[in-house]
C-alpha cells in the first residue's frame, strides 16, 4: 500500500506511546494533543531519531522501521523534510545557499542545486531575499526560507513541528496561507504537529488527537471538530462537551440531564456526548424556573476578555471545564468573579447529542 503506515509502541517509566495510523500520498494529517501527549515522541520515531520498543514504519512499500527484524533506517536515509518552530537556518549561508544545501548534499551539481533553490524561493514568495543571510530576515521570512529548504530536498515524508508557533500574529496568517497552497500541491504524505486548531482546519485533511500516548480521536478534520468525543478536542474546537449516558432525547451527566438534538443514531444507555458552543450559553445567578432550557450548576474558574465578549470558564458536572461567551455588561451586571456559583443555561435546540466511542463517560 502506498503512503505512510505507522504502528509503534514505546514504553518509558512514566510515559507510553501506542499509535497505529496511515497517511495517504498527498494527505496532511494533523496531530493535536496536550503537553506530554506524545506528539514530539511520535515525530522523533518517524524521523528516525528514536527507535521504539516495538513497531513498524513503512513508506510507499519501503520499510523504515521493523523492530521484529531489527531494521531501523537512519534519519539521513529516510528522505524526511522537517519544518520546526524555529527556522534553524545555517547562519553563515545565504537564504539561497540554505535552500540549495539539500540538493547539494544529495549529489546535485552546484548549478542544479541553485536552480532548485531559486524555484522554491519563488514558490514560497521570498525569491528577492535569496542573497540575504538569516540575520537579515524577519521571523516570517526565515520560516518561508526554511520551508523552501525542507521542500527543495524532495522529501518522501514532510514533518511540520509547530511551524507557526514562533511567528507573530501578523506573520502567522500569511505563512498559514502559504502552507495551505504548497501542501495542496504536494504528492507526499505530511504529518503536522500543532497546538492551534486553526492550523488543523486550514491545513489538514485528517485529524489525530493524542492523549497520554494513545489515539483518542481520528478522522476527517471537519468531522472530528464538529463531533468531538473528548473534552480536550471540544475545547480545541471552541465547543463545550459533556459525556455521559444516552437517555431519550438527551444525555445523563452525573445528576444532571442535558436535552438536545440527537444528530446520530444512538441507543438508550449508550455512551453519549452533549456538544454546544460557548456563545449558546447564558449565565444566571439563580436557576430559571419553568424554563424548558438546560440549566447546569457551575463554579466560575476564570474570566477571559476576548474582544467584544468575555469568556466565562467554569467547572461543571463531574468537574468538566465549560465555557460561556457573554458581554462585558452582563459580567458587570451579574458581578461575576472566580469561585462563585452560577448557572449555565442552554437552549435544547443549541445542543447536539452524539454517540461516543469507547466505554468511558462522565456519569
Automatic annotation (TrEMBL):
Q: Does the keyword rRNA processing apply?
A: no
Q: What is this protein called?
A: ATP-binding cassette domain-containing protein
Q: Which organism is it from?
A: Saccharopolyspora rhizosphaerae
Please give the Gene3D superfamilies that the UniProt record associates with this protein.
Answer: 2.40.50.100, P-loop containing nucleotide triphosphate hydrolases
- Show the GO MF annotations: ATP binding; ATP hydrolysis activity
The UniProt record lists the Mop domain at 289-355
Establish whether keyword Nucleotide-binding is in the entry: yes
- At the top level of its lineage, which domain of life is listed? Bacteria
